Amino acid sequence: MQQLPSPRTPGRYRIALVCLGNICRSPMAHVVLARRLADAGLDDRVELASSGTGGWHVGNPMDRRAAATLTAADYDPSRHRARQYDATWPEAYDVVLVMDETNLADVGGRTERIGLFRDLDPIDPGGEVPDPYYGGADGFEEVLAMVERTSDAIVAALPGALEGPA
């Protein structure tokens, strides 16, 4: 997936972000992408959701290290509550972007509307967002850097996607 698929509803776009537990990577991506969309004036036309393929953390706030990393970078992680991926999302969302190959397999594999979040990464297209959960603070910083640059690329691609096929 080098570009975003066309919207199901012209002029509106729905993006789902998925990782394993929905307490580190996908919520970090959600918070950053939401800010980038607001800054670009697209937040009224683009809907975001994030989830985890596992249900262990449903209802819990973001991992404290992920939240601290976001807070230090002037983002607000306080509203996040973990939720579990719903198998209907590939039909409900315009694109489902997962953080790694295991998540990709868990949601049914690559399709026109399901791909890796970093498929749109300008530095390493198609790379995985590594899970920082079992590591130190540097892992969360690395994830934030990947998420920020990929979010910028997604926001840059959205006007074209919102217009639909030429």
List the helices and strands and how they pair.
Layout: E1 13-19, H1 25-39, E2 46-52, H2 64-72, H3 89-92, E3 95-98, H4 101-106, E4 114-116, H5 137-163
Parallel strand pairs: 1-2, 1-3, 3-4
CATH topology: Rossmann fold
Which strand order spans the largest sheet, edge to edge or round the barrel?
Answer: 2-1-3-4
Gap between N and C termini: 18 Å
The whole-number mean of residue pLDDT values reads 94
CATH superfamily: Response regulator
Domain tally: 1
Strand fraction equals: 5-15%
Number of helices: 5
> Unreliable runs, pLDDT <50, ≥5 residues?
none
Per the principal axes of the C-alpha atoms, what is the gross shape? globular
SSE topology string: EHEHHEHEH
CATH architecture tag? 3-Layer(aba) Sandwich
* Count of extended strands: 4
Question: Largest sheet at a glance?
Answer: 4 strands, parallel
Question: Roughly how much helix do the residues carry, as a percent range?
Answer: 25-40%
Gyration radius from CA atoms, angstroms: 14 Å
| Structural class category | alpha/beta
What's the CATH class, please? Alpha Beta
Structural notes for this entry:
- This protein is α/β, with parallel strands linked by helices.
- The chain has one domain (13-157): Response regulator (Rossmann fold), CATH 3.40.50.2300.
- It has helices at 25-39, 64-72, 89-92, 101-106, 137-163; strands at 13-19, 46-52, 95-98, 114-116.
- Strands 2-1-3-4 form a four-stranded parallel β-sheet.
- α1 crosses α5 and α2 (64-72) packs across α5 (137-163).
